[in-house]
Design brief:
33% helix; 5 strands; alpha+beta; 159 residues
């Protein structure tokens, strides 16, 4: 679940297709190479699948972490097969908000608050999405994820 898959993959995308995820997903992985920001990954403890955005690719998409899986009318589904790295007790709004705020210092350009906002804008909603967003807004005293991201960047810049 990447709203901005990066130039290497984006150059192969022909279309974005709103669809239902065939798997249960949740913000349950901290991507160490991206400043520990929270990433949507398959999560067995999540009790339902949610909306997703599918991408129709040209014939030769990059294969870095992607696997192919025959699926419905799409011919194949490309997805990242990453493990959840959070313990179930850490998958709660307050812990997710704490992780998201902390990651902004490590990765200001691509961070968990922006990723959450982009997913909401695309209609990718998990069981934890709105409570997670609201916990960030409470902690920052702001009314939108964009405002929250800006204030958190100021906190770290002003240290």
């Amino acid at each position: 679940m990447v709203s901005d898959p990066g130039q290497k993959i984006s150059s192969h995308i022909i279309a974005r297709i709103p669809c239902a995820s065939p798997w249960p997903i949740e913000y349950s992985q901290r991507a160490r190479l991206r400043g520990d920001w929270l990433t949507l990954v398959l999560h067995k403890a999540c009790n339902r699948a949610g909306p997703a955005v599918g991408f129709r690719y040209s014939e030769k998409p990059p294969r870095a972490l992607l696997k192919q899986l025959a699926r419905g009318g799409f011919g194949c589904v490309l997805y990242c097969d990453l493990e959840a790295t959070l313990y179930n007790e850490d998958i709660n709004p307050e812990s997710l908000a704490q992780f998201a705020i902390a990651c902004v210092e490590k990765s200001p350009a691509r961070n968990a608050i922006r990723y959450l906002a982009q997913n909401i804008d695309q209609g990718i909603i998990t069981p934890m999405t709105y409570a997670y967003r609201d916990a960030i807004l409470r902690r920052t005293g702001k009314e939108s994820p964009a405002e929250a991201e800006r204030i958190v960047m100021c906190w770290f810049r002003d240290r």
